[in-house]
Amino acid sequence: MLSARMSSVVLVCAFLAGGSPLQADTPLPIMPLPAHMVEGTGSFPIDGGFQIVFQGHTEPRLERARDRFLMNLTRETGILHWPASSVNQPQFVINTAEPSAEVEQLGEDESYRLEVAPARVLLSAPNPLGILHGLQTFLQLVQTSPQGFAVASMTIEDRPRFAWRGLMIDAGRHFMPLDVIRQTLDGMEAVKLNVFHWHLSEDQGFRVESKVFPLLQQKGSDGLYYTQDQIRDIIEYARDRGIRVIPEFDMPGHATSWFVGYPDLASGKGPYRIERKWGIFDPAMDPTREATYKFLDRFIGEMTALFPDAYFHIGGDECNGKEWQANSRITQYMREHGIKDNAALQAYFTGRVQKLVTKRGKITVGWDEVLQPDTPKDVVIQSWRGQDSLAQAALRGNRGILSAGYYIDLNEPASQHYAVDPLESATVKLTSEQQSNIMGGEATMWTEYVTPETIGSRIWPRTAAIAERLWSPKETNGIDSMYRRLAIVSRDLEYYGQTYRSVSERMLQRMIGDVDSSSLKVLASAVEPPKEYAREELGNYDSFTPLNRMVDAVPPESDCAREFRDVANRIAIGKATPSDWQQARQWLTLWRDNDSVLQRYLPQSALTAELVSVSHNLSMAAAIGLSALGSLENRETVSPSARQGQLSSLKSLEAPHAVLLDMIVPGVEVLVAATR
Amino acid sequence: MLSARMSSVVLVCAFLAGGSPLQADTPLPIMPLPAHMVEGTGSFPIDGGFQIVFQGHTEPRLERARDRFLMNLTRETGILHWPASSVNQPQFVINTAEPSAEVEQLGEDESYRLEVAPARVLLSAPNPLGILHGLQTFLQLVQTSPQGFAVASMTIEDRPRFAWRGLMIDAGRHFMPLDVIRQTLDGMEAVKLNVFHWHLSEDQGFRVESKVFPLLQQKGSDGLYYTQDQIRDIIEYARDRGIRVIPEFDMPGHATSWFVGYPDLASGKGPYRIERKWGIFDPAMDPTREATYKFLDRFIGEMTALFPDAYFHIGGDECNGKEWQANSRITQYMREHGIKDNAALQAYFTGRVQKLVTKRGKITVGWDEVLQPDTPKDVVIQSWRGQDSLAQAALRGNRGILSAGYYIDLNEPASQHYAVDPLESATVKLTSEQQSNIMGGEATMWTEYVTPETIGSRIWPRTAAIAERLWSPKETNGIDSMYRRLAIVSRDLEYYGQTYRSVSERMLQRMIGDVDSSSLKVLASAVEPPKEYAREELGNYDSFTPLNRMVDAVPPESDCAREFRDVANRIAIGKATPSDWQQARQWLTLWRDNDSVLQRYLPQSALTAELVSVSHNLSMAAAIGLSALGSLENRETVSPSARQGQLSSLKSLEAPHAVLLDMIVPGVEVLVAATR
């Protein structure tokens, strides 16, 4: 609803900051941090005048990488033209020793060496993969200076710590259109991730065209699936970026959508319909009929031909076995064949399917559950259960990758993911040979609560922190440095095509209609989505539920709230600077007063009406914080009962409202607890 | 350069505002305003549950329009699924009487009728063009409410005032990639523009693949051209949106790029190189050789086959004739044939070329200059010289379209373009029959100072105001209503794929590097690019000059400065509200104090270093404004000499600094002049 013009004063919680001049301990503005770096003198200017020269091996992929590099450099600098200029200009030499494998292989040499000097850049690598990584490093190193854009002189020698650095996208629960996939691959390239794990079938949807079994997509996808041509395009697009594509077809559970077109595959009677709810469901493939394996043999034949990667993911998670137990033919089969329980029946199934995969020359990957006493040693375990579970697999001689700790759909802070090391296990000691079974890790983007619109802000920027964990040396682990660089990379990712920050602003504006969104942004900066699986308990969701609320618009982690907690902690331990005090007061005042402005508009839109209490609670918490701040500043004593009253008020504000956590409360609690 | 975390308080000049509840005079949030509208009772809910039903004529274009409509509705609301649901759901009926012409014709019936009621929408039109327009109207009418998204009940009967409502893009000076063209067509559809005029050749580049004369693009484009397949795709894309595509090949001047590959076409000796500077240049086609017409005959044959529209633009502007005068063979020819001057020679050329166009069954369009005493009546005149020039053509019996007044590259305010009516002429009185020769108008986006990155903020949102002038009744002319609706449309355009607002923010961040950009945004909100052709006098520009400065990042028109002027005017005439006074003080204080923060960072980046004086001047102007505001508030008298000193200080601040105008100065001048 349109009304009078106004303007308003907004607090922006800005991580890209500049209170003080260049700090001596400023880390390189890059993520993941390189393995080894030596600073030089001077800098290489980015002024549109340099020439890119290829030496050694060349191929069209490298030329495309150059074009993409120049396009992104243009976006970073606004400098448009890159004419092939005279030889006296500075040169950017790309030296590639040899081609890489026709189909990218796990463990190929991804190292590169980047020498930046005032008149010349030399990027060299054993094969194109290293060149691709080195170009991304260079892009991130571009900085403003009084003389213009430049990259400081330095020599970098870099290589990844782990060979498998992945991101999984669940295109089953919410279909993700091709532009989302391409945009994600662009972001992965920027942070040197090299495996795109494409979760392509779920209870809620079968997302690939099968020509052999067309009812899979015709009846199981609502029309939302990738054609085989589109799949091939994406594989090519990923290869251009040094990224392998690993398909996952989840079985025997999480497979309802298969059964809509092919009910005979299932263990129940059917008929089946595409599942619209979230959760673990009973339908499961029938492991006791030979027809199941005949179907899967042909299906795996078709899909292993479509996806060239050497690895093939068969899922295997969360099969509850209820359909098996309800089918007397299956229980009879189990008795006859001495299969003692559901786990054993699934192990039998996995063994059969694994042979079908092996027959096609591929290596099987599966979730934790596929690891059973008889599981062959060449099955790769993707662990969602934890580092210990992964270590157990490695101990046994199976290779594995870690996803536990990297579940980016759970809205945990980047620091939490960053602290998870694939090689650490509390309970299992591995020899270094056994450690080498652990190939890396994968961030997992499950999509119950994520749409094409919101997926960007769920993946980025936190996945860059996981990418660093998987690429950089183990010793690269400073949280403060990580967050400072993450802020810069978050901005850089916009140059490389990620739009999640502007999408988030657009969503907030949409919620409040034709009204200035400034006060809504202030509220948004103080809240976060609930963590882990709390959201599913706070509402009744299905495939059709719009994900257009505040909880969907805000990032999983509030920079503002984290900064406020840091300030509060410094105040509490007596290490605050005068600007910390001022900052805390400014923020708390803004949060306290924001409510009176915002309440006027919140009831006018269905999407903001639920925020009435959220805004009110923020104001209350901030008022308590201001009172505590005043007491601390004036060294006034606070009566124990008054403090207790405040703390219990705050405790009640910790509970989610409108599926949102007030992230200011913890900082305020610190301030109150610090009063005497 | 990364340094300490901070946050800052930013003024946002927000046009989407909500100080007061719904105003009685709130205009429909739509642009262009419909010709006729009657309000109903209740509203049609947008909740994902309605079904779109086609009646009457159907065609694939309508189905694609429906899919695009649903996608944009999803972006506007965040409501995802649109399953074909049960018949008890509300219905959205689209009734199309007949097909439109195979190739869209000028003057086809574009009318539609849109009836919105709580349980049903009926959109009907004589042909698909009206349906396309009606869908855009509906999208713009979607609003938030306490019950969710909805469109208020109403009946709209709508039709355009002018049949030719165009936007020209100059892809010659700066090549515009396909995604820019497509994005522009999306925006044109949203505001019901129906002609995309594609300026495809210039001194600086020849932008279409010719298979007959391949050296045109091979030597004349730096590799930046559209293939014929791409052109066909764009024509199809435009047709899907009810937009005709008219190509322009500028001749005989503005044609240097042709001569790089085909020097014999030219009147000079050559060799020719692609022009890198901006301006009017001497090279011109040789009108005296038959070979020129042979070439053009084959070329026009190829291009009229590629572009199906009935109209074909041959340019004809700004040929200075110097090459003709310098060539004795040409001057001799002129003498022999009684051609008295350059204008007559160009008229001869135009006449010959027009016959070649006519031979291919097309109608010739040209700029003002093609209108000469002998110009045939079926040549359409595009007037860049003014309304009088257009009226003269109409008087003579030539049809015409207006572009003078719609030059959006000149950075004029929307209100200025909005006030220009194609039918108004100060000097010529036309009969209504003569008036009917005036078919409409075209906004022109010349690209000397525009890149693919900045073109969005140059076109939008101001072009929506021009679109309204060309579509809506003449009586739709309230400036205040226009600006209020423009602010809403500007936001809506983001839902329809325009990214110019976030691009502008990205450019500001880029300028200042790894430092919080809040203070830079404050400065940006107070400045505008210089108007008309002032920029070319303020620097030395060519094709390679980066367009990444503040002048390129800020929109042509500052909402904030305009609002401040409005407030200052109300204060000056004694009609200010208390909130006006408070607002003025808040703004002026912010502008005054911003400089002290900003000066710390400006020297650190080459792109912000030039803003040192701009920021300082803004602070000075604001300080003068605050002083005047204080005098007015306290009814203090100001000595004539003090006031004169302030006014002359302000006068000196009117001059551009760093190619930027301080747009706060006029409002401050108003305040100072109002003091006693």
Key traits:
homodimer; about 675 residues; alpha/beta; Chitobiase, domain 2; TIM Barrel; 19 strands
Write a structural description.
The structure is a homodimer of 676-residue chains. The radius of gyration of chain A is 27 Å and the shape is globular. Chain A has three domains: 123 residues, Chitobiase/beta-hexosaminidase domain 2-like (Chitobiase, domain 2), CATH 3.30.379.10; 333 residues, Alpha-Beta Barrel (TIM Barrel); 174 residues, no CATH class. Helix content of chain A is 42%, strand content 15%. In chain A, helix 1 runs parallel beside helix 2 and helix 22 runs antiparallel to helix 24. With 676 residues, chain A is α/β, with parallel strands linked by helices. Strand 1 of chain A pairs antiparallel with strand 1 of chain B, so a sheet runs across the interface. Chains A, B: This is Hexosaminidase.
